[in-house]
Design goal:
By secondary structure, the chain is an alpha+beta fold. It is 28% helix and 26% strand. It has 6 helices and 5 strands. A 5-stranded mixed beta sheet has the order 1-2-5-3-4.
C-alpha cells in the first residue's frame, strides 16, 4: 500500500460567518475557510474528518453537505470540519505526472501540524517555509503583490 498524502490548503483567514452573513446564527459560523483550488472559486466545498489509530491516520468525508457535516458532528464529537472555496481536478494520470515533475510540495502526514491548520496561515507558512529558502520566500510573500 502506498503512502497517503494530504494537501494543506492555504487558509483564507476567514470563517464561514465572515464570508457569508447567512452563517452568523448557525452552528457552522466559526468553521475555517481555505483556498480550495482554481476551479469554481465561488463554490463552497465541505469536508469533515476524524483521526484514527492514535493519530496516525484519519477518515475523511469530502464534498458533503452541511446537513451531513452536522449529523457527523452530532454522532461524534471528534469530528473536525473545514470548508474550501473552489477545487482542483485532474484527468487520469495528470496528478501522478505533476507529482513526478515536483509541481506539488509533498510532506508526511503530521497530526500536530494538521491540528493547527486553522491558525490563519501560520501553519501553512511554517510547513512550506521550512522546506527550503526559495519556498520560505514564497511562504512569506504577501497575498497581494502590491504589499510586497
Amino acid at each position: 500500500m502506498g503512502t497517503v498524502g494530504v494537501i494543506l490548503n492555504r487558509p483564507l483567514g476567514q470563517t464561514l460567518d465572515q464570508l457569508d452573513n447567512q452563517f452568523k446564527h448557525g452552528s457552522f459560523g466559526k468553521v475555517p475557510v481555505f483556498e480550495g483550488g482554481p476551479v469554481e472559486k465561488d463554490k463552497l466545498i465541505v469536508a469533515a474528518w476524524e483521526w484514527l489509530d492514535a493519530n496516525k491516520s484519519f477518515k475523511l468525508y469530502f464534498g458533503i453537505d452541511l446537513e451531513k457535516a452536522e449529523s457527523l458532528r452530532t454522532d461524534n464529537t471528534n469530528i473536525n470540519i473545514a470548508c474550501f472555496l473552489g477545487h482542483s481536478g485532474w484527468s487520469p494520470g495528470q496528478l501522478e505526472s505533476e507529482l513526478d515533475e515536483k509541481s506539488w510540495i509533498v510532506s508526511a502526514l503530521d497530526h500536530e501540524l494538521f491540528s493547527k491548520m486553522d491558525q490563519k496561515g501560520e501553519t501553512w507558512r511554517h510547513l512550506v517555509g521550512g522546506m527550503g529558502d526559495d519556498l520560505k520566500l514564497l511562504a512569506d510573500a504577501p497575498d497581494d503583490p502590491l504589499f510586497n
